Amino acid sequence: MEKYDVIVIGASNSGAMAAAAAAEKGAKVLLVDKSKSTKFLFRNTIASVGSNAQKKKNLHINKSDLVNFIAAFAQGNVDQRLLWTWVNNSAETVNWIDDNVLRPHGAYMDATTDAKYESIQNTAFPTGNEVTNAEGTYWQMGWANGYSTSLKN
Question: What is the DSSP string of 97-142?
Fold first, then answer.
């Protein structure tokens, strides 16, 4: 029977980040997911505020406006401390994925604008970071093999 230092259940954004971070620190990691491949470990778009990709495209987001909009949209049923944690720390996470996972495998984060129109219900905040390959199209992940991480379903 194989032994692991860390076992992570669920290989979507949170689980994949936890597994990758543990593997980066030298742990032998088992990542368990119901999917049969590493193709969709990260969603195609990962939201952040102030990522390097967003800075490269001169996309600026007013943090207070964004937090206030989300809180209003949720009719106050949200913990604004969590929103502020995301707003103030999300760029670091997206930059880490870009630098340590994507670029070594020939891909990168490409910042995107948001909706092409705005209304009261649809206020645009350019928080998107698209996982993109060198040709500028959607990149299908197979990055888990780049770390000492095992994926089992």
Answer: HIIIIIGGGTEEEEE----SS--SS-------EEEEETTSSBPPP-
Q: Is the pTM above the cut of 0.85? A: no
The number of beta carbons lying within 10 Å of the beta carbon of residue 82 is 10
Tokens of 89: 């720390």
Tell which residue, 104, 84, 88, has the closest CA to residue 96.
104
Which one-letter amino acid corresponds to residue 101?
A: V
Position 61, amino acid: I
Give the domain ranges of the chain: 1-43+141-153, 45-137
pLDDT (tens digit per residue) in 64-92: 999 998 999 899 899 999 999 999 999 99
How far is the C-alpha of 116 from the C-alpha of 123, rounded, in Å?
A: 10
Amino acid at 130: E
Cα 108 to chain centroid distance, Å, stands at 12
Alpha-carbon distance of 123 to 83, in angstroms, equals 17
